[in-house]
Design goal:
This protein is an all-alpha fold. It is built from seven helices and no strands.
């Protein structure tokens, strides 16, 4: 195999690992991570739709879930405990008994609309206000992930691990949703 092909494969593998490590995922899942309680078990704390927690992996995002509930409460002007309770109720009501079939995903727009409707009803807030707050949080999270990716790629270029062209290609692949989850 030529050196160029090996380098391309290495960069692709690194980009996939980097994308997976950044956890580029949707906010609706992010807003539904439970706060661990003494009575909760691993089976009692799956994400609202995919059974794998807030950011798509077991054990990931627990602290971020608490932070997201706090941020959502602040944006909506309601008590954090009420938001956490409403998220837990949504998660329990939408828990899937079985994982989705191989190669299928729940419809993200439907899931987000159901989350906004459920939160609005639980919190006594207009659904449009909840939808706007969730969208703001999602946009902020995407900007944070993009910034973290840029920092890592800039460091890789500075260290000589990647060329600028390779870093640009990784950025474009993430933005288009080719690697690392959904695009923007």
């Amino acid at each position: 195999m030529s050196r160029t092909k090996r380098m391309t494969l290495a960069v692709s593998a690194g980009a996939l690992a980097l994308g997976a490590g950044l956890g580029v995922t949707g906010m609706a899942s992010a807003a539904t991570t439970p706060t661990p309680t003494p009575s909760s078990t691993a089976e009692a704390t799956p994400g609202a739709t995919d059974g794998r927690g807030m950011h798509g992996g077991h054990g990931r995002g627990g602290d971020r879930g608490v932070a997201r509930a706090s941020e959502l409460a602040a944006k909506l002007g309601v008590d954090e405990a009420k938001v956490t309770e409403a998220l837990q109720a949504f998660r329990e009501a939408n828990r899937q008994a079985t994982p989705p079939a191989e190669g299928t995903k729940p419809d993200r727009a439907e899931r987000e609309a159901a989350l906004a409707k459920s939160l609005a009803e639980s919190l006594g807030i207009e659904e449009s206000k909840v939808t706007a707050a969730l969208e703001e949080l999602r946009t902020e999270a995407q900007a944070d992930r993009a910034g973290a990716l840029k920092t890592k790629l800039d460091k890789a270029v500075a260290d000589g691990t990647l060329t600028q062209a390779e870093a640009d290609a990784v950025t474009k692949a993430v933005e288009k949703g080719v690697i690392g989850g959904r695009g923007h």
